[in-house]
Amino acid sequence: MIQRLKNITVYLMAGMLAGPAAGLAEDFTRKVEKPIRESVAIRQETQQATESWQAEKEKRIAAYEALETRKADLLAARTAGQKELERQRARNRDLADQLAKLEAISRDIEPFLEETHTRLAKLLKQEPALLPEERGQRLERLQALLQDPAVDIGEKYRKAMEAFFIEAEYGNTVDVYQQPITVEKQPVTVTIFRLGRLALFYQSMDAKSCGYYDRGAARWLPLENRHNRAIRAAIEIVRKQRPAEMVNLPIGRVVAR
Fold first, then answer.
1. What are φ and ψ of residue 201, in 5° steps?
2. pTM of structure
3. CA separation for the pair 106, 154 (Å, rounded)
4. Where are the alpha helices (DSSP H) in 127-171?
5. Which residues of 216-254 are buried (b: 16+ CB within 10 A; e: fewer)?
6. 31 Cβ partners below 8 Å, 6+ apart?
7. DSSP code, position 255
8. pLDDT tens track of the chain, all 257 residues?
9. How far is residue 140's CA from residue 123's CA, in Å, rounded to a whole number?
10. How crowded is residue 210: how many other Cβ atoms within 10 Å of its Cβ?
11. Interatomic CA distance for residues 1 and 102, integer angstroms
């Protein structure tokens, strides 16, 4: 009985001791472990927020730097554009000055071009036997060009000078060509030998007759057959069918106009 009471006492004491220990453990968990866990969780959240903000910060910095670069490029382009605009304005002013000068030159050149055309027409009239078709067509083209308002003054001047120099060149060259003429009221196609602007000779296609252009009479006249050989030789020299040599041609008198 006494032993049983001891056991009961020990059991009760153990129960009494166990009760406070469990309360202390629970209180420890509540006061120590929970705050630690909460602190760790907060730290993790803070770390994640910091990393997220750092990434966002770097992204915004990169965007800002890109915008700064774009701004610098735009400013440079604007500066270049302003300089180009100034250059263009200067060119426009130069072009306007040149246009005004060209208009003034045009007013001075147009009478000169008309005078040149008149002189060429006069030459054609004075020398109707000298390549009349070729020269007449050139003169007609020049007249149409000079009257065309769509053609600039520079092109008109170039064509007028071209026609003028071609006419001038006739006096320094020799030529051979075929041309229909009228001899003693008979039309005939002959070979013409042109000696500059000094003289025109013809020879029949069969080389049996020859003649010359009389400027005073303004007609083709026959020559004696003894001149056939000299005229034939001149024709062959111009055609490079024989070497150059002295040729005795009946030049006659030169008519000055």
1. -120, 155
2. 0.58
3. 9
4. 132-146, 153-169
5. eeebbeebeeebbebbbbbbbbbeeeeeeeebebeeeee
6. none
7. P
8. 545 544 544 444 445 445 555 565 566 566 667 777 777 888 888 888 888 888 888 888 999 989 989 999 998 999 999 899 899 999 898 888 887 887 777 788 889 999 999 999 999 999 999 999 999 999 999 999 999 999 988 899 999 999 999 999 999 999 999 999 999 999 999 999 999 999 999 999 999 999 999 988 899 999 999 999 999 999 999 999 999 999 999 886 544 44
9. 14
10. 25
11. 147
71: tokens are 């701004």
Q: How far is CA 249 from CA 18, 201, 210, 219, 232, in A?
A: 161, 9, 12, 18, 11
Q: How far is CA 107 from CA 39, 93, 184, 243, in A?
A: 99, 21, 49, 52
Asked whether 102 and 157 are in contact (CB, 8 A), the reply is no
Beta bridge pairs of residue 15: none
Q: Which tokens sit at 141?
A: 């083209």
> Cα dist. 161→101, 134, 154, 158 in Å?
21, 17, 11, 5
CA distances to 12, 188, 197 from 83, in Å: 105, 73, 61
- Strand, helix or coil for residue 99: helix
Q: What is the Cα–Cα distance from 221 to 184, expressed in whole angstroms? A: 7
Our measurement of the distance from residue 32's CA atom to the centroid of its chain's CA atoms, rounded to an integer in Å, reads: 89
